[in-house]
Design goal:
It is found in: Membrane. It is a multi-pass membrane protein. GO terms for molecular function: copper ion binding; cytochrome-c oxidase activity. Belongs to the cytochrome c oxidase subunit 2 family. The chain has a domain of about 150 residues: Cupredoxins -  blue copper proteins (Immunoglobulin-like). The chain is elongated and about 105 Å long. It is α+β, with helices and mostly antiparallel strands. The strands form two sheets. The chain has a five-stranded mixed sheet, with no helix packed on it. A five-stranded mixed sheet has the order 4-10-9-6-7. It contains nine helices and ten strands. Helix content is about 45%, strand content about 15%. The protein binds copper (II) ion.
């Protein structure tokens, strides 16, 4: 609201200044040049302003690089991550070099050929040589870049059928993630949205032999040094499973299964101990500590200190709570991973427990028949 108010005030102020200058112009009499056609003086001013703008672009770019550069994603936590970062860095270097050269040329020529009295521009209809140069160079550079990208993409996306992987399903719905482990057979049981019932929130076909050892969890644990083959499904709308630190992202599309595989190279604990991450977390916590002082002064509770965790985020705007659609991803050592998974009940067991006849609720001392009686008494009392 305040920002809207500031924008309105600034807008009105700009109109006021514009009107004042007009009034000032109208009050001028005598030898002042009131012509709307630019003279040599105007052209010189505009020419030098071009250099001013060029300086602004460069100073702002360099300032931005130093100020916000360190905030970009750092060390990749997956094996293929380095390849993605490499491709990104090459693209950035190319863009920066090309823009540095072309911006200087653009502004320099705008200055050099600024309007001068009695000077006429040269007209020529076309130049084949020039056109070949300015179409050929970008075409070659882009082709190389695209080929490099395609090569990296196939390299990352290719999962060998015989490769030893762990198959995990990631299920998206508004607005949460659920994971299903394929169990000892490493094959996920069939699933269908029509079979969703009670605790079977993913619609797993419980009659499928492959589904018997499937495990459904709400926190993703994966072991370091092992390729994880993710299969994605969505219950409702388009979502996108985004693992920023693993440099992986895949759309989750209703009605189809999409796939992606990556191998984590750091455990969560190892990644937390990386010097850059220690520094980043310390910085976040110093900001939180400052904010907490303010909160406590207002009688609110202080913020908890932050600890780093890998996250799975949704990267498609899928509805009102999209911003909060996330799941913790914990990379364990292979031993810890096994221990964690062994503790988990299979979905079949969970369904059995949920469907088992419940003993009468003793805690409240009221069973359902008594509750009915008391409501009947209450109704009678109303009459
Ligand atoms: Cu989503």
């Amino acid at each position: 609201m305040t920002s809207l108010f500031v924008i309105i005030v600034l807008g009105l102020l700009a109109i006021a200044i514009w009107q004042l200058t007009k009034m000032f112009d109208l009050t001028q009499v005598g030898d002042v040049d009131n012509s709307q056609i630019a003279n040599d003086g105007d052209n010189n001013t505009q020419g030098y302003l071009m250099f001013g703008f060029l300086a602004f672009i460069y100073i702002f770019s360099i300032f931005g690089l130093f100020k916000w550069g360190p905030l970009v994603l750092h060390t990749p936590a997956s094996k293929h991550g380095a390849e993605v970062d490499n491709l990104m860095n090459v693209t950035w270097i190319l863009i920066f070099t090309v823009q540095a050269i072309t911006q200087v040329l653009l502004h320099f020529f705008a200055f050099k050929y600024r309007g001068k009295k009695d000077q006429k521009a040269l007209f020529f209809s076309d130049s084949t040589k020039l056109e070949v140069i300015w179409s050929g160079i970008p075409a070659v550079v882009l082709a190389i870049l695209i080929l490099f990208g395609l090569y990296a993409w196939t390299n990352i996306m290719f999962v060998d059928k015989n490769e030893d992987t762990i198959v995990i399903e990631v299920y998206a719905q508004q607005f949460k993630w659920t994971a299903r482990y394929s169990g000892a057979d490493n094959v996920l049981g069939k699933a269908n949205v029509r079979l969703i019932e009670g605790v079977n929130t993913l619609g797993v076909d419980l009659s499928d032999p492959n589904a018997q050892d499937d495990i459904v969890v709400s926190e993703l644990h994966i072991p370091k040094g092992k390729k994880i083959h993710f299969k994605f499904r969505s219950q409702d709308v388009l979502h996108s499973a985004y693992f920023p630190y693993f440099r992986a992202q895949m759309n989750c599309v209703p009605g189809m299964v999409t796939e992606f595989a990556f191998e984590p190279v750091y455990t969560s604990a190892e990644y937390r101990a990386l010097p850059y991450m220690v520094e980043k977390v310390a910085n976040i916590n110093s900001i939180r500590a400052k904010k907490s002082i303010e909160l406590v002064a207002n009688g609110e509770t202080a913020l908890d200190p932050y600890t780093f965790d890998f996250l799975l985020l949704c990267n498609k705007i899928c509805g009102a709570s999209h911003y909060n659609m996330q799941m913790k991803v914990i990379v364990d050592t292979p031993e810890d991973y096994k221990k964690w998974l062994n503790d988990k009940p299979t979905l079949v067991q969970e369904v059995k427990t949920a469907n088992a006849p419940k003993p009468l609720e003793g805690g409240t001392g009221v069973d359902s028949t008594k509750a009915k009686d008391s409501s009947a008494i209450a109704k009678m009392a109303m009459k």
